[in-house]
Amino acid sequence: MTTSETSRFVRLRVELVVEVVDSDAVTKAALRRVAEDTDMPEGERAYTESAVTEDTAEALAYLVDPAELVGRMPGVELAQASWSSEQIDYDPDSPDWILDDEDEVDGDER
Question: Within 13 Å of residue 26, how many CA atoms lie on the same side as its CB?
Answer without folding.
Answer: 20
